[in-house]
Amino acid sequence: ILALIVSCAEKSSYYRNIVLTKCADRPSLCAFFKAIQQDDCADEKEIEILKGKSEPLILELGLLIEVLACKYDMGEVIYRLGLSISKLRKEVEAEAQNDRLYRPLLLLVENAVLVVKIKQESPAALQHALDNFVEENGRLNSDTALRCYHNGECLSRQMNYEDSLRYHYEALDIRLKLYGHNLDIADNYYQIGYIQYFKNDYESALKSFKKALVIRQNLHGKIHPVRDVFRNCHEMIGTTEYYLKEYDSAVHWHQLSLDISVALYEKEHPVVADSYFSIAKCQCEMQDYDSALESCQHALDIRLKLFEQECVFTSNSYDQMEFIRTNLKKVCESSLELQSKNSLSYFKKKKIILRNFSQINPNFLGE
Predict the structure, then answer these.
(1) Which of 37, 67, 161, 320 is most open to solvent, judged by the fewest CB atoms within 10 Å of its CB?
(2) Contact 101, 54 (CB under 8 A)
(3) Cα R_g (the chain), whole angstroms
């Protein structure tokens, strides 16, 4: 993972050598890793080794890379991976009855490749394809809703938020008429909230995120073994309330997200650092710089351990730390200045009182 995301060529090469060494006795993983590098890093013979589908870790690695590709906008990486693996489609389909291990990874990558391909599709082309599908299959069916949903996601990636929102509302309307409240409805509300958030319509976004959370809680219960189904909602509610300047409430939601993340992934994980970073931002706005400094330090420690120095997230934590310390210094200086002024004012007042009293009682100062 570090070999894929580290920008420094020297460090990337260092991590790549570690991967190749560790994978020396795992030909599937070795070829898999090389296949997602630049085209000249893997030859046809090595890619053929991918046909050995008995390596369980290959699916786990694929899932991790797909998540990273989404988080760090590494569409080209997943696209190269898909081109290599998609060649095995017919063989996998033929052998799926005997060995299903490879099929989930294949479908996952092909879906990612499809997303990369349609990312540049025009709104007109997407609408034309949808119209043809509706004409053949009708509007009120789950596949039509799914196509509307994917169109919305595609246009959202193109930052065409108006058309994206229109498709998500269309998918929501179909699904509500077909099913009532279910997880798909929750996902629709979440995506609608996400688009409203990027349109700076924070009030509407907050309502949408909370609707998504309520539906998920009603379906899963408030205590769920895989509580990650709630974490994203908590995080986005907290972030939205931050921009609405509801800082106390924002801290509450980010803390819920943090608690879930620690329970799921333990403390040394990127999303845990993200939560600490968000909490520190809120505490800065509340001018609680001591708490902000502590939260920021937690985020920085985790990011240094995971990403070392050369990472934009680590850099962001350093910038935040400097901002907090600068403001904390100003607060301390202001407090000392105020104390000094108050002390000076006290002595001046005392001097005036003593002078006035001495005029009444000349023997007072002598005493």
Answers:
(1) 67
(2) yes
(3) 29
Q: Amino acid identity, residue 363?
A: N
Percent helix, strand and coil across the chain, each rounded to 5?
80, 0, 20
Q: Is 26 in contact with 57 (CB distance < 8 Å)?
A: yes
Which CATH code of 3.30.70.100, 3.30.465.10, 3.90.950.20, 1.25.40.10 fits the domain covering 121-221? Answer: 1.25.40.10
Pick the CATH number of 230-361 from 1.25.40.10, 1.10.10.10, 1.10.260.40, 3.40.50.2000: 1.25.40.10
Two tokens at 318? 């350093």
